């Protein structure tokens, strides 16, 4: 084979490999979320098997982390205040990670807020505004750093209860990516209800295009082009109730024990790890615009997009050239290059 024939052979092989990818898409409901897995693989049989493996893994994690399934580890922990050793390794991994995030975010991310969130009715949808005294009383048992995990097992103080709802889907997406990688999948897109996880690029070599929801008019407010990244959004518009003209959203400020009243409509985090993006999107939402940007300046290991109540679009310098505004913003701002990685 001479050089030219070899180059043509390589080119045809490349075309065959990239075009020979079959798309398999499966949807299921888990973790109270409609989830869709889209995979490009060598055959639909392989694609279906990998989708099934992912669905089984996500359901297994739900069986550990659910606050409502009575035989889940977290349900048992919340009710008995103890889980005997050995603690499930995935629960222990998520707990360690969550403790780090609790400390790093100055408590803005706090999985121990569950009793407070329940008091407002977000777990049952029987919404109410509790008295300030009741909220203060419940806040006394939300110091997440006090959760103990040692050789005896996992221990909660008397009235503490945990909920990994702000990080669980991101953690599950990381586990799904591990399954995709171990099966040799180079191109896939996971949509775990607001938590997007892009694996590689699209089979034609272009970047994945992911929309950020428009909080006001529906549709997309902006589009991001990404490769091998988690894109996770926390938005006040996702779940809320209104009483006497006030909107109470499902993201809580651990300092006040009340729904966050920050100046943000949504926070989108872009980075490799799904659990990091998930925990950060919730925490930066609680921090509000200025503190979220300050947090980014001190921890530039992720990118962000803030949509503010004043209709601003603010994004980190790492996204320059990869973000396209799709609605009328009052202002579009990119953070200064000096914070760049
Ligand atoms: P996310 O959609 O990832 O921002 O998660 C929001 C969910 O996490 C809420 O529905 C609550 O169950 C829980 N949550 C609310 N506020 C917080 C907080 N500050 N820290 C941790 N979890 C929270
Ligand atoms: Mg989150």
Automatic annotation (TrEMBL):
Mg(2+) binds at residues 166, 278, 282. It comes from Treponema bryantii. Belongs to the ApbE family. InterPro entries: ApbE (IPR024932), ApbE-like_sf (IPR003374). Its cofactor is Mg(2+); Mn(2+). Keywords: Cell inner membrane, Cell membrane, FAD, Flavoprotein, Lipoprotein, Magnesium, Membrane, Metal-binding, Transferase. Pfam families: ApbE (PF02424). Gene3D superfamilies: ApbE-like domains (3.10.520.10). It is found in: Cell inner membrane. Magnesium. Can also use manganese. GO terms for molecular function: metal ion binding; transferase activity. Flavin transferase that catalyzes the transfer of the FMN moiety of FAD and its covalent binding to the hydroxyl group of a threonine residue in a target flavoprotein. It catalyses: L-threonyl-[protein] + FAD = FMN-L-threonyl-[protein] + AMP + H(+). SUPFAM superfamilies: ApbE-like (SSF143631). The keyword Glycoprotein does not apply. The keyword Repeat does not apply. One of its GO terms (cellular component) is plasma membrane. Its EC number is 2.7.1.180. This is FAD:protein FMN transferase. It is a lipid-anchor.
């Amino acid at each position: 084979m001479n050089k030219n024939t070899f180059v043509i052979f390589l080119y045809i092989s490349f075309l065959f490999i990239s075009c020979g990818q079959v798309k398999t898409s499966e949807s299921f409901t888990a973790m109270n979320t409609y989830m869709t897995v889209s995979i490009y693989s060598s055959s639909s049989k392989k694609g279906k098997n990998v989708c099934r493996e992912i669905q089984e893994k996500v359901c297994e994690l739900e069986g550990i982390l659910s606050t409502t399934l009575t035989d889940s580890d977290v349900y048992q922990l919340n009710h008995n205040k103890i889980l005997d050793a050995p603690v499930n390794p995935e629960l222990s991994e998520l707990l360690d990670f969550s403790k780090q995030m609790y400390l790093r975010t100055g408590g803005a991310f706090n999985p121990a807020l569950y009793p407070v969130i329940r008091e407002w009715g977000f777990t049952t949808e029987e919404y109410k505004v509790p008295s300030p005294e009741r909220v203060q009383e419940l806040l006394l048992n939300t110091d997440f750093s006090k959760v103990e995990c040692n050789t005896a097992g996992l221990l909660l103080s008397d009235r503490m209860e945990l909920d990994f709802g702000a990080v669980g889907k991101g953690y599950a997406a990381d586990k799904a990516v591990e399954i995709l990688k171990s099966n040799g999948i180079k191109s896939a897109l996971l949509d775990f209800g607001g938590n997007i996880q892009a694996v590689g690029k699209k089979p034609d070599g272009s970047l994945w295009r992911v929309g950020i929801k428009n909080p006001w008019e529906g549709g997309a407010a902006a589009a991001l082009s990404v490769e091998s990244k988690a894109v996770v959004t926390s938005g006040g518009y996702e779940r809320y109730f209104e009483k006497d003209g006030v909107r109470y959203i499902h993201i809580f400020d651990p300092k006040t024990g009340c729904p966050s009243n920050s100046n943000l409509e949504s926070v989108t985090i872009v980075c490799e790890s799904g659990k990091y993006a998930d925990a950060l999107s919730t925490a930066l939402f609680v921090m509000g615009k200025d503190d979220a940007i300050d947090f980014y300046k001190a921890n530039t290991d992720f990118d962000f997009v803030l949509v503010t109540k004043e209709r601003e679009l603010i994004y980190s310098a790492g996204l320059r050239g990869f973000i396209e505004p799709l609605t009328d913003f009052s202002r579009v701002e990119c953070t200064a290059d000096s914070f760049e990685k």
